[in-house]
Structures are given as structure tokens and as C-alpha cells.
Amino acid sequence: MLIPVIKRILLICFSVIVASATVGTPAVISQQKAEIISHTVIAKQADRYIGWPSIARTADNELLAVFSGDRDEHVCPWGKTQMVRSADNGRTWSPVETVNNTPLDDRDAGIIVTARNTVIVSWFTSLAFAEERYIEHYPKEVTKSWRRHTEKLSEEIRDAWLGCWVRRSADGGKTWGDHLEIGVNSPHGPIQLSDGRLLYAGKALWNEKKELVVKESLDDGVTWRRTGAIPIPDGESLDHYHEVHAVENNDGTIIALIRFHASDISGYFMQQSESYDGGKTWTVAHSTGVWGYPPHLLKLSDGRIVVVYGHRREPYGEYACVSYDGGMTWDADNPIMLAPAINGDLGYPASVELDDGSIFTVYYQVDEPGEKTCLMGTRWRLK
User: Fold this and answer.
1) pLDDT tens by residue, 26-70
2) Is 366 helix (H, G, I), strand (E, B) or coil?
């Protein structure tokens, strides 16, 4: 019992040290497994809410970060898929660009740059803002405009735009192709496998059967087909299994981690499934022993695999955990706090590896007390 208590005390002490550092100022702070190099506010919108980002790196080393921005709140009708760019490894960022602004709430932006240098952005749309439980949760002066907007949405508009989407760009995100509805979503989108295929493991939203479905694209994201599904233990409910992300190990094994909601928050350990045949069949989901959600997986150039995730209980923050054996086990006893947070409205971190071996991770959380959430980033390095 003493060792977990000591670890918790050390994490809390580290949170205090990080919180005292000036945002954007390089301040190397060491932990047992990593060093934190710098924290950066990437995008902040006055009195607006930002959430659920992802990041990708282009062939010419430009970083592209996408998110849902220009929002009233965590739920609202106004969410847009937005993007910012960095040409200097995350030190400075461009003004915000809008990629999508559908009549519904555009949420959970994912991004990938394929081997053909195609930029693919993924997201899903939601009508939750029209539900009374959310309208009653927020101030009437805010939700009054939500009701007006909802009244304007015909059944044809709702049917046309409610779904899981991708858009492609062949010019680095300057212009975008058609909205493609593909029937599967997860916050950070698809990955590319070593054989060139794109693989998307996620949840089938807005379908009667909300399975953990896996789809692939053989044509650089133009069309998608179902290849399999991730099974869960007998007697479990899919209502407990949510956002998925995958990574391919050096030996071709595909590792998928899954957000998991147990009956009690103490059991929110991410689940894992493996595929040994390119994504056709998968092992039954099983616990990783890593508490937090949702996952984003990154295989480093040295073969180690890193998962980053939000930690929505004290000590709040963005965390990472490392696998040294290709994702078969996780160093769950040594979580790495990347950045402390003021409260639990945070997370959805995603990472890229930079040329010098350091890692840049984007996420959303509150920067200063009294503000709404913004887009932030941490540059760090594994020891």
C-alpha cells in the first residue's frame, strides 16, 4: 500500500512544479521515464470552447493539428473542424483555418498524412445539442440560440449530415474534396499500415449495431470496406466500449486500444485487442492495466510504443505510458504526466515523433482559471 501512495505524492509534486512553469518557455522537468521540454498554448478562442484534437506530420515536416473549435460548450450546435499549422516543430502556430462547418455539431477531429502525401481529416456529427438534457444543463441565454437552430433543421438535413465522415486533401490541406460518410468513427482517425492500406478501427455510430468495427481503404481513403470487428468478453455490453486507436508493430501485429467505462470509475482501464492477420480477426478485448481515456498510439523509431491519454481524476492531466515489447504489455506502474490540468475537462492527446527523437503531443484543457478550454501542446522525450 505504501508504494502507490508514494507514487501519488510524487505525481502531485510534479504537477505543482509543471504548473509553475511559464507556458511556452522551455523548462526541462525530469520524471523517472521522461523529461518534459516545453508547454505551448497553440490556439485559444476568446469565450469559445475547443476540444478533441489530433496531430499529423507531413513529408516536409509541417505539423498539422485539427480540433473542434469555435464552440459555446462541450455540447453545442456550432462545432467546426478547424486546423492550425507549425513549420518549426510546434514552437509557433498559424492562425486557425476552418475545414468543416456542417449544419450539425462537427466533433472529434482526426488527421493522417498518407504515404501519397494525402491529408485525410475524420470527424463525426452530432445532434446532441437538440436533446433537452443538454439544453437544460447550460444557461438559457446560451441555449436559446440552440433551440432556434434546431427548429431550422429539417429531417432531410438531419438525415443528410448525421454520420461519420472523412475528407481528403491533395495539396496539404489548402483545398478539400467531398464529404465521405464511412460509418465508423474514433477520435484520432485511421492509420496507415506497412503494406499501404489505411485501417480504421472505431465504433459504428448512428447504426443499430454499435459494434467495434474495423474498416480498410485500398485507394488512399476514397472508399472503405469492412474487414472485421473487435470482440468483447461474453456478458459484457458494447455500451462500455468506446473510442479506439490502433498501431502496427514491427512484426506486423496490429494493436488496438479501447476506451472502457466500467460500472465504477475506478475500473476505467483501457482495453486492448490484437490482430495477427492484417485486421481481419481480433483477440477478445482485455485490460491493459492503464487507467485513462481515450488512447492515441504512436510507434517510435526505436520500436517502443507510446500511448497518450487523458486522466480525468486527480491528479488531472495528460498522461503517457510505454510498451517495450510491441504492445504486449504496458509499464502501467510508471505513468508519465505530460501536463497537469485544472479540472477534468481535458484530454484526447495525440502525438507525433520529431526528427530529434522528441515527441510533440497536442491536447485540450483549460489554460487559466475562469477560461474555457483551448488547444495546447507539450514537447517531451522518453529517457
Assistant:
1) 333 336 789 999 999 999 999 999 999 999 999 999 999 999 999
2) strand
CATH fold label, 2-382: Neuraminidase (2.120.10)
Specify the pTM.
0.91
| Separation of alpha carbons 245 and 232, rounded Å | 16
Backbone dihedral angles phi then psi of residue 340, each to the nearest 5 degrees: -75, 160
Helix (H, G, I), strand (E, B) or coil at 66: strand
User: Alpha-carbon distance 242 to 67, whole Å?
Assistant: 19
**3-state DSSP of 226-259:** EEEECCCCCCCCHHHEEEEEEEECCCCCEEEEEE
Rounded CA separation 290/308 (Å): 10
Other residues' Cβ atoms within 10 Å of the Cβ of residue 77: 24
* pLDDT tens string 241-283: 999 999 999 999 999 999 999 999 999 999 999 999 999 999 9
Q: Which three cell numbers stand for residue 160?
A: 443528410
Domain ranges in the chain are 2-382
Q: Is 111 helix (H, G, I), strand (E, B) or coil?
A: strand
